[in-house]
Amino acid sequence: MSLISMKFLLFVLIAVIGYYSIPKKFQWVWLLILSYIYYASSGIKIVFFILFSTITTYTAGILLHKISTCHAENQDTNRSFRKQQIISQKRLIVVTTLILNFGMLGILKYTNFVIDIFNHISGNQITFFNFLLPLGISFYTFQSMGYLLDVYWERYKPEFNFFRFALFVSFFPQILQGPISRFDHLAHQLFEQHTFNWAQAEVAVQRILWGFFKKMVLADNAAMFVDGIFNRYQEFPGLSIIAVLGYSIQLYGDFSGGIDVVIGIAGLFGITLKENFKQPFFARSISDFWHRWHITLGTWMKDYIFYPISLSKGMSRFGKFAKKTFGKKVGRTLPICAANIVVFLVVGIWHGAAWKFIIYGLYNGLIIAFSGLMAANYQKWKKACHINDKSKLWIVFQIVRTFILVNISWFFDRADSVRQALIMMKNAVTHFEITSLLNGSILETGKSVQNFSIIILIILLFGCAIVFMVSFIQENKIAVQQVLISRPVMIRWAVYLMLLFALPILGQPPTSSGGFIYAQF
Amino acid sequence: MHNFKKVGGIVLFIALCVVISGMFNFMLVPYSYIRVDVHNIQEKKYDDLYIGTSHGKAGINPLEVDKITGRKSTNLCLGGEYLEDSYFLIKEAVRHHKPKRIIYEADPGYWVTKPSQNTDYNMIYREFPPSLVKVEYYIAKNLSADFRNTIFPWYMCRNQYTAIPSIIKTKLSQEYKNYGTKVFKAENQSYEEEGFVHINRMKGVPKSKDNLILWDEAKVYQGNLEYFKKLVQYCKKNDIELIAITTPIPQETLEQYAEHYDDANKYFSKLMNQYNITYYNFNYMEEKEIDRSSDAFSDYDGHMYGDAAQNFSRILGKYLNRK
Amino acid sequence: MKQLLEILEDIQPGVDYENCTTLIDDGVLDSFAILSIVSELEEEFDISITPVEIIPDNFNSAKALWDMVQRLKEA
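^ Those are the sequences you sent over. The predicted structure of the assembly is below.
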């Protein structure tokens, strides 16, 4: 069920009405049933996959807890021996569960990539597997593995009720494209009893409308140019810059718009999901960008990969060695940089099984590592050049610089291959022309569309201006939604009507691939 | 009391949306001959119904066929009509009068593509009067589609904004109220009686190859097959005879893409055989009277000129007379 | 405690560590800074800090950090 289908809207409507009509203590059961209906509607077979993750993680959580509590009760004589035994038992459980779940994800997502590499090296022709990637497997796997590690680290107790845990893994609004939730943030909200609240519902509907606006008016319009240029990049070398700028608009509109819809829908049930975007294009560094873009993936990576690697024994040894060799400051930073590069390598691979994504991840990781290493020097240079960190000009410079760096990374994200990305990057600095953009020759509609492409450009600029304005206000810490909701009803209605009717008038139908970009992960 | 006010507000808001959307509907959705086609099956009693694509629309003149068969028929083929649409057109027709026979014009290109939501997705659905068939049609076609197709039925007609004055003028005219067809008369084609579109010869207009979609069995759209089976079942249940045909295309195209068209012919022959349906593929029949030269077609894809259609319709009539 | 404040000042100067209680919540310390602090604390106080300890509660203020160090020293 695509988020933009009529079926889904009706599904949500029925879900919400049911949710507030049944006795409150059954609300979470209702959500569980709906989530499984939603999941099963895209294929009965794939229910097996989500059940697999749910069962293994649930069991592991319980076992981990049991082992710990047994230990607390059994104060026998040989304490340190017993403690060791328990640690290794727990480790065995966690490692097994991690391997089972990430193994499943890995096999489904990366087998063909590995076969491809193998074929290249060995000259064999092993045929590819035709796996169907189960809906949202990346998102629910990450979510449940986060839970597993938290229970392992005893950050909280496991969930003992299997069905409640199943709801945490499968909560339908977020299963398609995140955000990746944490058990301690989401679970209690799912199980609490919620009373319908008009203001809350209005805020939620606002958010949904806004999400559709970003998706249909920004992303789908931008996609027409972006697809046109990227698919025929050799014909239009002078449009590489336009293509990548367009992709910025498309990806942001698509992904953050989709998340807006998801957060809005969860809001209709009185559930607050974590924000996944915070005005990313106002970021002042690449590291800052990742604190504002796909935030829940970033924090997941930080908590479950970055810190554990950084604090591992191997890294600590490396750190000591580095301190001896390179001095205190650099030696201290080097292991962190190394861990950071590993994290972004994983982020890259997460985006897809292809070299271009590995480069995409490494590119981000290396920039952050480099600026980490250079941080002290930058401070010195800034002092020497009398640059004030808080001056507006400096901030604008940082934002523009970061935007350019981010756009360079998009070439790898969007192009079909590393080769294409490099060629387009080269073209971006050596060629520039705009006529084929305006005369409509890049739009793959097969008819003469000169005016059409200018109209779409105008719509895009208009849409960007609105989204920029709203982002600018939010960046200045003003809660736009709260401001809007306190306005008189006439103003609110006018805003809603304009947003609503912008969808059919200014929006485009989704491109051939259909639906949302991040729904394929 | 508070809730009452809130609910009232929402109802008012929705009513406002409906009014605005209705206005757009009136201004943007043009008068289409599909309305006349649908009106025909409601008003008249037919023995034979043709369903299929633009090839059938331009190639089959019911009046000519009827002269040979002595029956009464109408052409419900349409450019952009997939089997899921044909199926409901038949159901709608049966709601008023049960035909004796259905002639399905199969265009291979329509079997390897999906109905696109980037075109006027609702054009046939929209012309149906309210009924259970319409509800079923809605569930089949629109429920999984983009919600804008439902909430804003004019959504895919929005590019017609320059035509608003003429659309309004037409819709206010007597012609529209009486299901007249004069407005469909253009330089290149006209809509004639019983749903036949007559394509005129135009001097100096190059013949296009744009529409050509080649057969590839791997790409067969399963939704089509599903509705084909449904149609077969439905005809069986209602005791309606079902016949399938493929209209001729220019010899030049046929030879250039011989492999594709051969494969398609094999596929359809096998499929129809499996369901015991008579299938005439006029591209592979020893029928000398059919003009296969490119002179008979308005493009390489196989849309016949009106005069060639005249000729073909008589030949079709002969085949329909066979028992 | 004085040692701790010196470490903090060395890693990221210009913060009022004695009074700030939202070092993490307000994003004063990023992950690089956090790990630098961990690395220094481990060396200075001869303790071992595991991923379990990396939670905002332990890093939001100098006092919280100090409490964590004391706790780990005892273990």
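Strands of chain B lie at 48-51, 73-75, 101-105, 189-191, 197-199, 241-246, 278-281. Residues 297 and 304 of chain B are 4 Å apart (CA to CA).

Shout if you want it in another format.
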